[in-house]
Amino acid sequence: MRSEKELAAESDLLQAIECCAFLGAERKHLAEQSARLEALAAATLSTGGDVSGLRRTIRQVDSDLRQIDRMLEAIESRFPAAVQRRA
Question: 20 lies in a domain?
């Protein structure tokens, strides 16, 4: 029979795994969004359009990506088994 401490640790690990899966999916979505925004900015710039608004949005998305990476690193430092290796 497992102790309460072991059960709590297992529960924490399962939550960390679920959190990492969610963050990984969110990171993938944001990376795709960033790529689309970069392509849109390049197309807009090539036609002489203003891309300042797009650049602000791209910087925000990139900031969100870095924040997700920091969260994943923090989880990995506590629960190494929870984080799938990222490319």
Answer: yes
